[in-house]
From TrEMBL:
<dbReference type="GO" id="GO:0071555">
    <property type="term" value="P:cell wall organization"/>
</dbReference>
<keyword id="KW-1015">Disulfide bond</keyword>
<keyword id="KW-0961">Cell wall biogenesis/degradation</keyword>
<dbReference type="GO" id="GO:0005576">
    <property type="term" value="C:extracellular region"/>
</dbReference>
<keyword id="KW-0964">Secreted</keyword>
<keyword id="KW-0326">Glycosidase</keyword>
<dbReference type="GO" id="GO:0047911">
    <property type="term" value="F:galacturan 1,4-alpha-galacturonidase activity"/>
</dbReference>
<keyword id="KW-0624">Polysaccharide degradation</keyword>
<dbReference type="InterPro" id="IPR000743">
    <property type="entry name" value="Glyco_hydro_28"/>
</dbReference>
<protein>
    <recommendedName>
        <fullName>galacturonan 1,4-alpha-galacturonidase</fullName>
        <ecNumber>3.2.1.67</ecNumber>
    </recommendedName>
</protein>
<feature type="signal peptide">
    <location>
        <begin position="1"/>
        <end position="23"/>
    </location>
</feature>
<dbReference type="InterPro" id="IPR012334">
    <property type="entry name" value="Pectin_lyas_fold"/>
</dbReference>
<keyword id="KW-0119">Carbohydrate metabolism</keyword>
<dbReference type="InterPro" id="IPR011050">
    <property type="entry name" value="Pectin_lyase_fold/virulence"/>
</dbReference>
<comment type="function">
    <text>Specific in hydrolyzing the terminal glycosidic bond of polygalacturonic acid and oligogalacturonates.</text>
</comment>
<comment type="similarity">
    <text>Belongs to the glycosyl hydrolase 28 family.</text>
</comment>
<keyword id="KW-0732">Signal</keyword>
Length: 425
């Protein structure tokens, strides 16, 4: 309860910014085909981004360079799309993106920073990521996390920001990240990474198109999200605290992730107080994209570092606690609820010391593609404590008996049978 009240208070504070009178107003319209809008956008942000107001008229703004908006006590109404030119080689040059998101050395082409601002895209504007060009390119080139593919929309070092009714079309890589921030509300977010090239129908050519990764941030609310992607619709990463998620639709991909955690041997990852409600996880038609792996899943690396980040790692400690996931509907998920602590590990790796505790799963429904609907495999070095279920009723295929597996779980309650199944899900 404490969590919710805190967030609603900050939401109210942020919403009160709507009523503020701004001293400066900048209005923009797209320059038109063949023209470059980057300069006029930067000039307007410099002029009105602090103690001012900006109105972007409808249409496409041609953005050809990386851009940071430092917003202070300001408001942006975005009725058009910032259209990021799909020049892959240009963006992959590290000089042409920012590296403000520390984890896995991710790149960003557009960064918002500052405090006390609103960006409202009114459900008609946002970012055009032109992802198809990227997805097609990577069907014949090697793709690695942290290789410089840009995050579409990054919030970094933000305090008290509201992002409202924002659309991101065809994100090439992660759709959103919020890092090193506090008191941020995203109310209304749409991301859609859907391959439209028939040559790749039925495969997942859109991996790493995560809805959002949260990192080193406190008091973030994600409400009314609609994400289509080929990876994590939401990835809760290290030092995310007091996260509130409600009315979240996830289409395709891997589901909602906690992790991966413990990748950096020198950093502990703490995830504390996460409340999620009304999550809808839907499988896409298999000719479009074949994945709907999990509903909610948790993953940590082992205590042994195998390789180094961004692609290898392990050895980091920390904990995940006080998580509630309620009113969850999963549609044909492969493994509706899963926890594992062996990411990147080998048989010789030391079991993780990162501990999961106080996890509650309330009112789950829908369907699973396998009988094992709960698969919680905790580390021998950090057994899971206090795993609670209430009304957990995900239907199994062909009316088979549901199987529940718990490994190194010291206290669990609320399932309709013993949590003692064995073997892979
Ligand atoms: C964007 O601007 C560049 C010049 O910087 C231009 O060559 C290109 O045609 C423009 N793109 C569009 C879609 O207008
Ligand atoms: C990045 O910029 C630096 C400094 O201007 C330059 O020395 C370097 O060659 C550039 N790197 C690439 C990959 O273009
Ligand atoms: C996502 O984009 C695809 C391709 O344009 C479209 O068919 C689909 O309806 C979109 N999904 C949503 C939820 O709007
Ligand atoms: C649950 O989420 C869906 C999709 O966002 C929304 O349509 C519905 O109104 C929500 N239900 C409640 C009770 O808020
Ligand atoms: C932790 O290790 C990473 C490399 O794995 C390094 O980039 C980072 O600076 C280190 N952070 C601290 C706080 O030592
Ligand atoms: C998380 O916070 C803890 C405690 O403040 C700190 O020791 C740790 O380095 C932080 N981890 C990350 C990933 O920033
Ligand atoms: C259980 O969750 C579903 C959505 O997944 C919702 O429609 C229903 O109202 C919830 N039931 C209760 C008792 O809250
Ligand atoms: C887990 O919940 C118990 C009971 O509410 C509480 O005492 C304990 O501090 C919680 N554990 C963590 C790691 O927050
Ligand atoms: C359920 O029945 C269908 C159709 O008979 C079959 O193809 C499928 O393998 C069965 N699934 C399981 C898990 O038994
Ligand atoms: C799990 O426990 C139930 C009830 O005690 C028992 O019937 C079943 O055989 C057990 N399953 C396994 C795999 O141990």
């Amino acid at each position: 309860m404490k969590l919710k009240v805190g967030l609603l208070t900050s939401l109210t504070t942020i919403l009160s910014l709507f009523a503020r009178a701004y001293s400066k107003l900048c209005t923009l319209v797209p320059l038109g085909p063949g023209q470059d809008d980057t300069d006029q956008v930067e000039v307007a942000i410099a002029e009105c981004g602090q103690y001012g107001e900006l109105v972007f008229g409808s249409g496409d703004y041609n953005i050809t360079r990386k851009m940071t908006w430092n917003l202070v006590a300001s408001r942006v109404d975005l009725y058009g799309y910032l259209n990021f030119v799909p020049d892959i080689q240009y963006w992959l040059n590290p000089n042409n993106t920012y590296r403000v998101v520390f984890i896995q050395n991710q790149a960003s082409w557009f960064v918002i920073t500052g405090h006390d601002f609103t960006i409202d895209a009114h459900g008609v504007g946002g970012i055009q990521g032109n992802g198809q060009t990227w997805w097609t390119y990577y069907t014949t080139h090697t793709r690695e996390g942290g290789n410089g593919r840009p995050i579409a929309f990054t919030l970094s070092h933000v305090a008290r920001g509201l992002i409202k009714d924002f659309r991101i079309e065809a994100q090439p890589f992660w759709c959103n990240t919020v890092a090193d921030s506090e008191d941020v509300v995203y109310d209304g977010m749409y991301c859609n990474a859907t391959n439209t090239n028939p040559a790749y129908f039925g495969q997942n050519v859109v991996p790493n198109t995560d809805g959002i990764d949260t990192y080193r941030s406190n008091r973030v609310a994600l409400t009314n999200w609609d994400i289509t992607c080929g990876d994590d619709c939401l990835a809760v990463k290290g030092n995310t605290t007091n996260l509130y998620v409600a009315n979240y639709v996830c289409r395709g991909g891997n589901g909602i992730a906690f992790g991966s955690l413990g990748q950096y041997a020198n950093l502990s990852d703490i995830v504390d107080h996460v409340e999620m409600q009304n999550l809808t996880l839907l499988r896409l038609p298999s000719n479009i994209q074949p994945n709907m792996v999990s509903g909610v899943y948790f993953k940590s690396w082992t205590a042994t570092a195998n390789g180094v980040p961004p692609t290898g790692g392990g050895g980091g400690g920390g904990y995940v606690s006080n998580v509630v996931a309620k009113d969850v509907y999963v549609d044909q998920a492969l493994a509706p609820l899963r926890l594992y602590q062996t990411n990147g590990g080998t048989s010789g790796s030391t079991a993780s010391y990162l501990q999961f505790s106080n996890l509650s799963f309330v009112n789950w429904s829908g369907t699973s593609l396998q009988s094992k609907v709960v698969d919680i495999e905790c580390s021998a070095n950090a057994p899971c404590a206090n795993i609670q279920f209430f009304n957990f009723n995900v239907a199994t295929p062909n009316g088979t008996a549901p199987e529940y597996e718990c490994v190194n779980v010291v206290s669990e309650s609320g399932l309709s049978g013993p949590c003692n199944a064995t073997g892979s899900a």
